[in-house]
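Quiz preparation item.
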């Protein structure tokens, strides 16, 4: 069951939009936190990494979260100072229970 593996506290951020302003009313260039959530962060290795390389060579990490509306590929996931760029979003079985975020670690 997915719930047993959601043991890491991560945050999802979105890029600033044209309407986002700081406390002085100026446009901001800081990423905006969307949600903090529990996740399973799994570095891909071995056979998983070889399969992911067929889609793209950049996929290095799979982040599993409970299903949530509004998560898209423009966002990033941050965990303990590491930032992951979302490359693909997989909906296993389309049953609205889980999302798999296929990511690469930003340098």
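Solution:
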């Amino acid at each position: 069951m997915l719930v047993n593996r959601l043991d890491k506290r991560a945050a999802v951020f979105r890029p600033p939009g044209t309407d986002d302003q700081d406390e002085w009313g100026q446009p901001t260039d800081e990423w905006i936190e969307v949600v903090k959530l529990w996740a399973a962060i799994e570095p891909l290795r071995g056979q998983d990494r070889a399969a992911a390389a067929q889609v793209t060579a950049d996929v290095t990490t799979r982040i599993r979260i409970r299903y949530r509306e509004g998560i898209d590929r423009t966002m990033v996931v941050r965990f303990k100072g590491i930032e992951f760029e979302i490359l693909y979003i997989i909906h296993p079985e389309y049953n609205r229970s889980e999302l798999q975020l296929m990511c690469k670690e930003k340098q």
